Amino acid sequence: MAVDPIGRDVKAFLAADPDGPVVMLNLLRFAEGGRESYERYGAALRQTFLPRYGGEVLYAGDGGPALVAEEGQAWDAVLLVRYPSRSAFSRMVADPEYQEVTRWRTLALTEAVLHPTLPWTVG
């Protein structure tokens, strides 16, 4: 199962709108004992990398039973993280210091969805 983004997907992500803001939907399924490792990653993300690249956690919470979904689509945790731009997100994931702490995320998860979203314009 997928856990980390790969190069070609990051390139396509950047091509969509490199300078526009983006909110990343994170759906997480933890490995046995993985929550502690993810919390370590999350602390580094909040304390160092989000401030450095202008991101912020908008929401973080435990997943519950799905009301409408196919079998197997329950997630252990859900996060929404806003970045000022796709290029800011890309710079963060390319940062050598960030790459050092992503091992905690990779070890923590058996599956993940990292889905960029764009706000609707209501008017």
UniProtKB/TrEMBL annotation:
<dbReference type="InterPro" id="IPR011008">
    <property type="entry name" value="Dimeric_a/b-barrel"/>
</dbReference>
<dbReference type="Pfam" id="PF07045">
    <property type="entry name" value="DUF1330"/>
</dbReference>
<dbReference type="InterPro" id="IPR010753">
    <property type="entry name" value="DUF1330"/>
</dbReference>
<feature type="domain" description="DUF1330">
    <location>
        <begin position="35"/>
        <end position="109"/>
    </location>
</feature>
<protein>
    <submittedName>
        <fullName>DUF1330 domain-containing protein</fullName>
    </submittedName>
</protein>
